[in-house]
C-alpha cells in the first residue's frame, strides 16, 4: 500500500472526505460506489466498485460469443477501463482506460454508429484506428455502468450487428441489476 501523506478527520456523522487529487487520479465521481474492506491489521481500505468485477468472466465469454457470431472485434467497457476484449489482442486492450468520447456517450446514455470510415481511439492515448463502429451504453438500475462496442476496419457494420450490440448492452445491464 502506498502512503499519500494526506490526513483527514471523521466528522460527527462518521464521514470522511476523499481528497480531490485522489478522486481525480482514480476517476472517482460524485455518486460512485466504493467498497469498504478491513484487513487483518485493522486497516480500512476503500476500493472503487465496478459491477463488472463480479461479471468479468461472464462478460468475456459473452464478448467471445459475439465475436464468433458477428466476425468482428468487440470491446466491453466499464466506467473506467476495458473489461473484456475479443477479436483484438486481449493483453493490449484489457484494463486500458476508456477514451473521453466513449465516456461522454456512456454518461449521456447515447448509442453511436459510424457508417463512414473514421478515425477512432478505442482506448485513451491509443493511436487512432480507421474503421466503422457501433457503441451502445450498458445501463443498470438507471445508471450508465459501461458500454459495448463492435468495430470493423473494412466495411460498415450491418443492421444485424448493430441490433446484436444493442441487445448485448441491454442483456449485460440486466445481469447487473
TrEMBL record:
Is Transcription one of the keywords UniProt gives this record?
Answer: yes
The record's annotation in Pfam families points to:
MazE_antitoxin, SpoVT_C
Question: InterPro entries annotated for this entry?
Answer: B_subtilis_Trans_State_Reg (IPR052731), GAF-like_dom_sf (IPR029016), SpoVT-AbrB_dom (IPR007159), SpoVT-AbrB_sf (IPR037914)
Source domain of life is Bacteria
Set out the biological process GO terms recorded for this chain's protein.
sporulation resulting in formation of a cellular spore
* Coiled coil start-end: none
**Alphabetically ordered keywords of this record:** Activator, DNA-binding, Repressor, Sporulation, Transcription, Transcription regulation
Named from the GO MF annotations, one term is: DNA binding
Q: Which residues form the SpoVT-AbrB domain?
A: 5-51
Q: What is this protein called?
A: Transcriptional regulator, AbrB family
Upper taxonomic classification of the species? Bacteria, Bacillati, Bacillota, Bacilli, Bacillales
Amino acid at each position: 500500500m502506498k502512503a499519500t501523506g494526506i490526513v483527514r478527520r471523521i466528522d460527527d456523522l462518521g464521514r470522511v472526505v476523499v481528497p480531490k487529487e485522489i478522486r481525480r487520479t482514480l476517476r472517482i465521481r460524485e455518486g460512485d460506489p466504493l467498497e469498504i474492506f478491513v484487513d487483518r491489521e485493522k486497516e480500512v481500505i476503500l476500493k472503487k466498485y465496478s459491477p463488472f468485477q463480479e461479471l468479468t468472466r461472464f462478460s468475456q465469454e459473452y464478448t467471445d460469443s459475439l465475436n464468433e457470431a458477428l466476425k468482428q472485434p468487440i470491446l466491453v467497457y466499464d466506467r473506467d477501463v476495458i473489461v473484456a476484449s475479443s477479436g483484438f489482442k486481449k493483453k493490449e486492450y484489457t484494463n486500458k482506460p476508456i477514451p473521453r468520447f466513449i465516456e461522454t456517450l456512456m454518461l449521456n446514455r447515447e448509442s453511436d454508429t459510424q457508417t463512414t470510415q473514421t478515425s477512432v481511439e478505442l482506448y485513451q492515448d491509443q493511436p487512432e484506428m480507421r474503421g466503422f463502429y457501433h457503441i451502445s451504453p450498458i445501463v443498470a438500475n438507471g445508471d450508465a455502468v459501461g458500454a459495448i462496442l463492435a468495430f470493423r476496419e473494412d466495411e460498415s457494420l450491418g443492421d444485424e450487428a448493430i441490433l446484436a450490440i444493442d441487445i448485448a448492452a441491454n442483456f449485460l445491464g440486466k445481469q447487473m441489476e
